[in-house]
Amino acid sequence: MATIHYSIYWKWREFKMDLTRIFHALQDGLASIGYKLNSLSEVRVGTAVEGRVYHVMKRATSETNGEKRKNFRSQYWAKIALHPDEIFQSLQGIIEELKKGKEELAEECKKLRIEVEDDAILVIPKGFNKVNISFFDSP
Predict the structure, then answer these.
(1) Which residues pair with 2 in a beta bridge?
(2) Strand 36-37 and strand 87-89: pairing?
(3) Co-location of 63 and 96 in the same domain
(4) What is the pLDDT, as a whole number, of residue 49?
(5) Domain that holds residue 96
(6) Residue 116's pLDDT is what?
(7) Would you say residue 47 lies in a domain?
(8) Same domain as 79, residue 11
(9) How far apart are CA 5 and CA 130, in angstroms?
(10) Is residue 135 part of a domain?
(11) Angle 66-75/42-62 helices, nearest 10 degrees?
(12) What does the alpha-carbon distance between residue 103 and residue 101 come to, in Å, rounded to a whole number?
């Protein structure tokens, strides 16, 4: 369930009811908090958001009392239902990917360190003891 404030809907009115642009605007907003929607849900979610945008525009422009219009703008929140199968990636998924990437980089770094140390030992001039020369601190 995505809860969206009036100001966002009012901003999205500029998209002229283009479902694709509305969906991508929502997608960009959700990406900043770690969620991504499945692109197959574009039409359904775009249509739902479009309905809310239309409601906000109609209500805000029809309200003649300035105080009521101000209250509506500051207090209006609407929910858009998101089905679990539409959520492609969550914050937990991003964290898991980052941890996996970190582990892969650590393994690659370890392999490269061993390779460089082996190469460094091969170029040690005669007379130096390889035990006395250390290029890297061991972990």
Answers:
(1) 80
(2) antiparallel
(3) no
(4) 75
(5) 91-124
(6) 80
(7) yes
(8) yes
(9) 67
(10) no
(11) 160
(12) 5
Residue 139 lies in a domain: no
Beta bridge partners of 4: 78
pTM above 0.70, yes or no: no
**Residue 93: predicted pLDDT:** 65
Looking at residue 123, its pLDDT comes to: 57
Q: Which pLDDT value is given to residue 107?
A: 93
Residue 19 confidence (pLDDT) = 72
Are 73 and 105 in the same domain?
A: no
pLDDT (0 to 100) of residue 138: 52
Can you say whether the dihedral through the CA atoms of 44, 48, 53, 59 is positive or negative?
positive
Counts of helices then strands in the chain (DSSP H, E):
5, 4
Whether 39 and 68 map to the same domain: the answer is: yes
Q: Are residues 60 and 96 in the same domain?
A: no
Whether 137 is covered by a domain: the verdict is no
Average pLDDT per run of 10 along the chain, which is 139 residues long?
56 67 76 73 77 74 76 71 67 75 92 79 59 52
Give the three-state DSSP class for 32.
coil
